[in-house]
Amino acid sequence: MxxxxxxxxxxxxxxxxxxxxxxLEGDSVNKFNRITLEELGEATAxxxxxxxxxxxxxxxxxxxxxxxxxxxxxxxxxxxxxxDLREWATKANTVFNDFEDLPVPTVVAINGVALGGGFEMCLxxxxxxxxxxxxxxxxxxxxxxxxxxxGTVRLPRVIGCDNAMMWIATxxxxxxxxxxxxxxVDAVVAPEALIDASLELLKGAIAGEFDYQARRVEKTTPxxxxxIEKMMSFTTGKAMVAQQAGRHMPAPITAAKSMERSxxxxxxxxxxxxxxxxIKLVRTPQSGALVxxxxxxxxxxxxxxxxxxxxxxxxxxxxLGAGIxxxxxxxxxxxKGTPILxxxxxxxxxxxxMKEAGKLLAKRVSRGRMTADKMSSVLNSIRPxxxxxxxxxxxxxxxxxxxxxxxxxxxxxxxxxxxxxxAVLASNTSTISITRLAEALERPENFCGMHFFNPVxxxxxxxxxxxxxxxxxTIAKVVKYALQMGKxxxxxxxxxxxxxxxxxxxxxxxxxxxxxxxGDFRKIDKVMEGFGMPMGPAYLMDVVGIDTGYHAAEVMAExxxxxxxxxxxxxxxxxxxxxxxxxxxxIGFYRYEEDAKGKPKKCEDEAALAMxxxxxxSSVELSDEDIIARMMIPMxxxxxxxxxxxxxxDPADADMGLVMGIGFPVFRGGALRYIDQMGVKAFCxxxxxxxxxxxxxxxxxxxxxMAANGESFFK
Length: 715
Fold this sequence. Notes:
Layout: E1 3-4, E2 8-14, E3 17-22, H1 34-48, E4 55-60, H2 71-77, H3 82-100, E5 106-110, E6 114-115, H4 117-123, E7 127-131, E8 136-137, H5 151-159, H6 161-170, H7 176-182, E9 187-189, H8 194-206, H9 212-220, H10 227-245, H11 250-262, H12 267-282, H13 285-308, E10 317-320, H14 323-335, E11 340-343, H15 347-366, H16 372-380, E12 382-385, E13 396-399, H17 405-416, E14 424-427, H18 434-437, E15 447-452, E16 461-466, H19 472-484, E17 488-493, H20 500-516, H21 521-531, H22 537-544, H23 546-559, H24 561-564, H25 571-577, E18 591-594, E19 600-603, H26 606-614, H27 624-644, H28 651-662, H29 671-678, H30 680-688, H31 701-709
Helix pairs in contact: 1-3, 3-12, 4-5, 5-6, 5-9, 6-10, 6-11, 10-11, 11-12, 13-19, 13-28, 14-15, 15-16, 20-27, 21-27, 27-29, 29-30, 30-31
């Protein structure tokens, strides 16, 4: 044994050839935490002192190679002063440089995921052999930072500046074919051939068949482009990066600029440039939000897995109500491997549901993501039916009929008679109380909410709603089913609107009040899209369906009359009364025409503008900042109320729910991180400016207390 540690070992495989194996003790994956980084330095020193060493093979003892840095540790590092952070980054880079400078050739066998620091480890090797099941990449920009272990230095010198800018600025995972084509790896082989192929390459390098020293010269000296070539490459590349990233995400363009600045430098100088940009990005609010979201996502996923442990086996599912939503649920279930029955009361509904599933599958086939045979297999695992035949074999049944309490109760009560006593019923209601719906059932303990978001195949979130009598076993089974469907479930307690819709409707109420006070919905849409929302509130209402929103708003007003009941006729009510329902019938706040691809194209409509004018009761001067404040304050305060009332488990669920459920801008991190970044005291002061607008704008006592104590939602 050359070196033995808790994260890696080094030993001779055969005479002259050592294996450096990453195998982090007590963890299912390898990652670059403090111990791994320290031990890599120690192991490298031990290898360098071996007089008989001829070559090093780098491997992993886990199913993955190295997933990246341990973000839970690195967030503490990010709080250090610039000088301390620079010292740490410099020491870390020294470790990678020392490994790269070993006096013998090095080959890495990439057996699985190699991302971030994991791929930077691969880049520090002379040659890279990749399993056909592995993925590589530098996704740091998705955390609001650029690579910090030499990625912006080595990758442009390995695959060229143009390719490197796209790899790093997008942060995309690279599959074997793309990695090989761009030159990020030297070979791709079957998993079972990985070690033998890597050893063969290493022995060839030892024998002088492959010039490993030339590889090192390329990685440690300036990029081989003249000034004009560099200018053309980076000018074009930065323009593309800026266009794709947008103005709210500084990491991609900063990483591109780092590569541009370091292109004409040697390795030591270039690493200093990378560290400069790394520290700059660590200090941005976007990095804080994105890293926080990453940690929240891990926490939410861990909680879901915890719930699902007691979920038992789910072999067969069923959905009640075909249509677009039912068809989407059936597609997602079948596509992810759980066969599903799809029941409706009419052939037309079943045809619509099957058409929806078929359309989604055909799109995958046309894009090369699925074979025609696989499509056929998935479609065959969806069984349409006008009866309850086979429902006695279903483990989970999801009701997805019209959003009407009496209709839902009738359907649920009838269905309960045709299923096993241990089967679970779930309602895909978006606003109606689960406790209320359960009143129609003989086994309310076997019933909960399972709120999907539209379109089902694209939206990752599922709210699993616990009614007053819902059992833990029911929650466990439905959470497990959501995970089997490839969704991220959050468990919420019952209340009108549950979580996402409950906080969305105060946002819409803020919009109605802005129009009442003289706002232009076109400007409001533009401002909120500039804030980072995927679409402005007027456009969002059109997409959701103004009729759907109107009926949901009635439920919310009944549930929370002191805050959500209007004392004026809002523009959305006028739209509903005029039967302007949005995209579904072609007219709402905007008029919709089909574009060349058959998709609805948004156009201005004079009648809508006139209707909005008729809803105005005053003409207040509204700045962009005022619009953002008046839209965001109600949503944020209602989110805090959900935490205070125990509707949600914790702030991580709250922020992830908004990001995955309504597309809250990721670079802001969610409603509670938005408050944190502003400061709770500053948020309360902002809300107090608009206290005359009513209870939706009045901070909770908990917020006041947090402001007084200097507290935050996230540490």
